[in-house]
Amino acid sequence: MSNILRTILVTLGIVLVASGASHAGTENIFASGDCANGKKWWSVSTFHDGRLTVVMGLDCDGKIYMRYPYLDNVPSDPTAGETPNYVGSGWYALARYDDLHRIVWIGGKDISGQFYVSTIDYPADDGSGGDEPQPGVR
Amino acid sequence: MNRFMKGTASWPAVAVWALLLAGSAQAATTEFKYYNGTCNGGNVDAWWCVIEFKDGVAVRMSGLDCRGHYYQNVPVKPRILTTDPLDGEQPNATGVDAGGNEWIALVRFDENNYPTWIGGRDGNGAYWLDDAVNALQ
């Protein structure tokens, strides 16, 4: 194999690996549904390379919330035996919700194959606002 | 309840609206519309926006723009118009109100993919517009 051909193949390989590595990147996933109290909820969960980095949403009390979860790496699949409810490019996660439909637990596998879990807390009154629109944080 | 801004609409129009709203016996419908996309050269890879519509009129919005700024519960303050703000443009939000009537709306975003212009026609055929949506207002 000539040096020129080898160089071309190596370059092509690097490009393919680079494009594959950046494939997952940031994925924002929107979800919404009906609450038991007649209201509606929504959430946007942001995953970076398959790891939840931030979640914002409107809960069943009509309050906006936003959380940056801290993820703990774990050695085995925390979703084993259950069906993930978030699936992306080479990753998956299972989220559990409270009565207000806020994520309180999440576990999954990122694009590197690392398993993780996180528990998300919501203080009783975090001042994030109620039914009436609140000024933004732009 | 009058969802529209006071002082920016003619009183006859407000009166008509008050009658229309008073005559509506059904509970208001709430719909969330989700918009998203990728950013080119911004601080983040992707932007998103959720806009809440009640019976086809935008009431508040939350999201992330391409500068990486999150905005939460930003109020939309529509005013009544006598002409169609879409003026032939295709809507990017549609739905059905509590009375079964179709509504349409158009959301425009600025260069950072922050929503700055929201207008439409509700299920009663009334035109509305907020062309200066601003988180700081």
Quick structural gist:
Chain A is mostly beta strands. Helices cover 14% and strands 40% of the residues of chain A.
Give your account of this protein's structure.
The complex is a heterodimer of chains A (138) and B (137). With 138 residues, chain A is mainly beta. Chain A is 14% helix and 40% strand. Chain A has one helix spanning 3-21; strands at 26-34, 40-48, 51-58, 64-67, 72-74, 86-88, 91-97, 103-109, 115-119. In chain A, the strands form two sheets. In chain A, strands 5-9-8-7-6 form a five-stranded antiparallel β-sheet, with no helix packed on it. A four-stranded antiparallel β-sheet of chain A has the order 1-2-3-4, with no helix packed on it. In chain A, a hairpin with a 2-residue loop joins strand 2 and strand 3. Chain B has a five-stranded antiparallel β-sheet with strand order 5-9-8-7-6, with no helix packed on it. In chain B, strands 1-2-3-4 form a four-stranded antiparallel β-sheet, with no helix packed on it. Chain B contains one helix and nine strands. The mean pLDDT of chain B is 84. Chain B is mainly beta and 137 residues long.
